[in-house]
Specification:
It is a single chain. By secondary structure, the protein is an alpha/beta fold. The protein has one domain (about 25-310): L-arginine/glycine Amidinotransferase, Chain A (5-stranded Propeller), CATH 3.75.10. Helix content is about 25%, strand content about 20%. It has helices at about 15-25, 70-85, 130-140, 175-190, 230-235, 245-250, 275-280, and strands at about 35-40, 90, 110, 115-120, 145, 160-165, 165-170, 195-200, 210-215, 220, 240-245, 260, 265-270, 285-290, 305-310. The strands form five sheets. It has a three-stranded mixed β-sheet, covered by helices on one side. A three-stranded mixed β-sheet has the order 3-4-5, sandwiched between helices. A three-stranded mixed β-sheet has the order 6-7-8, sandwiched between helices. The longest helix has 17 residues, at about 70-85.
């Protein structure tokens, strides 16, 4: 006798997203600033930077006019360094031609172990860049787990991974409380248990203006901008704070605007001998790339690089 089953008899899969992400979406992951870098998203400067002149550069938050071809050449050299170290370099497609800051990709994406948070820039001159970024992420197969919305604004460089459970998040001119709350909620949803909240001071717009990781337990800081509460929590986690005090190299040379290729190995803007020596004295291997033209946009290597994949780091 044939048994007729009435109605639905389907049950959902209890597999968590992270366990099937690689198979269904792709190999995308980031829970640190120093795990071996495997894939990045960049925007090669296009026509949008060709109209930065003596008359309008300050309108776009540039510090000086920019030579477009020289800027492209410097970014290309950085991309070549990435590729020579086994990093896949992906580029944003169909970006707007009226957004000259679009090359600073770190502000537009915060990568996590389960996908990307697409950010919402704070200044009107950058709003809308995130659409092309979202389209590119989708075309690559990178899950977008959150897009900052409502009256929140948040830029990716206002957050910094310390380890899988710990993230520093700063409020300031580029991230308001509503934006930070959205990011914090999403991070806690994917297993981050320790959020270190801090204020980004008036003299910096992002965390990477005064702190950056160079190794699993080593953080370079500009000590006069790091709050005591933030520093104390990091020290309690066993993080060594390396104090960089050369203001000229920090602000005009963008010396702290480096990217770790792996623990203890960074690529940084050239022309910052004191900072380079400081890092080398700490056992960090330094690769230099000329960035002086890019720096006219008040950014450099870290600003131009959105991480898409880093290897997990063991902190044992």
């Amino acid at each position: 006798m044939k048994v007729v089953v009435q109605g639905e008899r389907w049950f959902p899969s209890e597999t968590v997203f992270a366990d099937e992400m690689k198979e269904l979406w792709g190999d995308w992951y980031c829970d640190s600033e120093v795990g071996r870098l495997r894939a990045v998203l960049m925007h090669r400067p296009g026509r949008e930077i060709e109209g930065i002149t003596d008359e309008n550069f300050s309108q776009y938050r540039f510090r000086a006019p920019i030579n477009a071809e020289r800027a492209r050449k410097q970014q290309d050299e950085l991309a070549d360094v990435y590729r020579s170290h086994g990093v896949a370099v992906h580029y944003v497609q169909n970006q707007r031609e009226d957004r000259p800051n679009a090359m600073f990709m770190r502000d537009l994406v915060l990568m996590t172990p389960e996908g990307a948070i697409v950010c919402r820039p704070a200044i009107p001159a950058r709003r809308g860049e995130e659409k092309a970024v979202a389209e590119t992420l989708a075309s690559l197969g990178v899950p977008i787990i959150k897009t900052i919305n409502g009256d929140g604004y948040f830029e990716g460089a206002c957050a910094m991974w310390i380890d899988r459970e710990t993230v520093i998040i700063g409020t300031g001119s580029r991230s308001n409380e509503k934006g930070v709350q959205q990011v914090e909620a999403e991070l806690r949803n994917i297993g981050v248990t320790n959020i270190i909240r801090t204020q980004i001071p008036y003299g910096s717009i992002h965390l990477d203006g005064y702190m950056n990781m160079v190794d699993k337990k080593k953080l370079v800081i500009f000590p006069w901008h790091v709050t005591y509460d933030c520093a104390k929590q990091l020290l309690d986690l066993g993080i060594e704070l390396i104090e960089m005090t050369n203001i000229e190299e920090l602000k005009n040379g963008m010396a702290m605007n480096f990217v770790a290729l792996e623990p203890g190995k960074v690529v940084m803007p050239s022309g910052n001998p004191e900072t380079k020596a400081l890092l080398e004295n700490e056992g960090v291997h330094v690769i230099e790339v000329e960035m002086d033209e890019i720096v006219n946009g008040w950014g450099a290597i870290h600003c131009m690089t959105a991480f898409l994949r880093r290897d997990p780091v063991s902190h044992a």
